[in-house]
What we know:
The complex is a heterodimer. Chain A is of the alpha/beta class. Chain A has two domains: 3-367, no CATH class; 383-435. Chain A contains nine helices and 19 strands. Chain B is an alpha/beta fold. Chain B starts with a strand and ends with a helix. The radius of gyration of chain B is 18 Å and the shape is globular. Classes of the chains: A alpha/beta, B alpha/beta. The interface between A and B is medium-sized, with 22 and 30 residues.
Amino acid sequence: MGDLQTHALELAARQQAPEWAGDLRRRGAQRFASASWPNRRTERWKYTPLVAIAKKQLALPVDDVMALPEGELIDVDAYKIAFVNGVFSPQHSDALPEGVVTLADAEGSEIELLQAHLGRQADSQEHLFAALAEATLGQGLLVHIAAGKVLDKPLYVVHYSCGEQPLLASTRILVLAEASAELELIEHFLCDTQEQANLVTAQTEMVLGDNARVKHYRLNLEGEGVTHMGGVFAELGRDALFDGFAIATGGELIRNDYVLSHCGSGAHVELQGVYLPRGRQVVDYHTNIQHRVPHCTSNEVFRGIVGDRAKAVFNGRIHIFEQAQKTLAQLSNKNLLTSNKAEVDTKPELEIYADDVKCAHGATVAQLDETSLYYLQTRGISKEQALVMMSFGFINELIQAIKNPAVAEYLLPRLASQFGRQPDDLLVLEADTLD
Amino acid sequence: MLTIENLCARVEDKDILKGLNLEVKPGEVHAIMGPNGAGKSTLGSVLAGRESFTVTEGEVRFDGKDLLELDVEERAREGLFLAFQYPVEIPGVSNMEFLKASVDAVRKHQGKPDLSSVEFMKLARETSKRVKLDQAFLKRGVNEGFSGGEKKRNEILQMMLLEPRLCILDETDSGLDIDALQTVADGVNAMRSEERSFIVVTHYQRLLDYIVPDVVHVLADGKIVKSGDKSLAKELEAKGYRWLESEVA
């Protein structure tokens, strides 16, 4: 057993948790303990070394009242629900709307729903960090929207990591959207300083009933020190729509697994993602779109800009089951390297067992186009500014397409300044690459 | 305004310009014609400062300054403008943002007052009307999905916004229908003045019916082999470049 395995389970054993979670926690602990720690030969972790995290010395969060950085939050008309180092913070949260309850306050039929669904998609046998999340289960939300109901405002879940001590922050969200229910969920991960070094395990599982519609935002805007092991899982009923947007700007290691399953005909998955690791950061998206039934569609677009010595891993799997005829699936992953020391490992993975499907996929890795750069320069624009404009332009299309205007307005200036405020090291590296 | 002496340039290991001389005075319009492969586009690229072209000999003075010593963007800021034969598509970078960044950089260098966003938008809209480019194109990515004619109109739009002193049009007429050609020519003619000069590089005499040059040069095998007034263009059109090659030989 690796260091982190022993250590995390010791922490789990000291945690307080609701009684109903006992069996799940034991199962998670057992599976996490018995999992063999991934190495370079482990396919799922081939390009994402876990050496650094295995040595992380973590503690459990305490119930401090830390102030939230209000200026860093999204200015959105929504139900704000805050978790500070993984712990629900009622003083920073709005009153929960009908159908939303914290795991600690769940009772009666809510507990039954939690026990029936938690870990069903985020399989702790298959996903290493789902096992850790299960072993440390206790904090999080149940969002249960009844048939035909539309949640009037988005749920804005703030996951805030703070403090000097690296903590194990574990939150869990279960969304049950019954038939024709609609909701929007914004998950925003942020932290107080670049040095903050929590291990965040945040697993979100969603079940979309027939014709249900869920808009989901997963914004990994943590600092350079955070390790994030996340998962987003959804099952879609007939004609259901999952519309997801993901962004990761940095972190010591940000890993998100998306597993989205079409379980009813006519379901559609839309997933757009952007990643921008710099310095020595690592971002890893593993997506798995599972077409299990006929007549479903999916469209997935990820774009990344990787600078300095940073690394991005993108594994996009599309699995079309034998009976899933008439599937239309599209996947595109484009990467831009802005330094000759940056690395991208991208792998589209198609597994197609049906014979009447349309499936398009593509992955590219490129450097900034020399001709475009020259064109901008011939118009008086400096090389440095031209590089910033072109890099930003590469992801701008996806940012512009964000449907929630408050999220887009929040991200645009921050991303622009991320490009603008690094003229020294990064752009020197970029210039080297282009010469 | 522009003095080119014995300019020799190569791309990769191939010599393209082989001792080109040219003198352009303020207010003049020079047409450069010539067969494919003569070095017409190379001349534009070398003057604009494209890195893949190496100047091996000769000098170029632009208003007394050593042009070859300047970076690409410095040349633009000094008032040199190259309208591309094949304008580049840059998806994601909005045309409006691009135009603003460009105009800001050039005006700042020339000591002209900054334009506010509102002033700039107004100017860009008015100018796009003059070149008959739908305003929707200002919001798109730079040249993204533009037709050939729309790209050339966008080039002329940039030229009008930047108010350069020396404009080089690199086969701006190629691939244009008569309406677009007329618009491009109107744009150029409206900008003609005593202080501003043009070098119009073209393969066809047709453009010169609309933009009447003061001098016509024939470029062949990296050199100017013949110069004359606008009647030279007609003669070339009638007799073809072969005629000239044999005459020079």
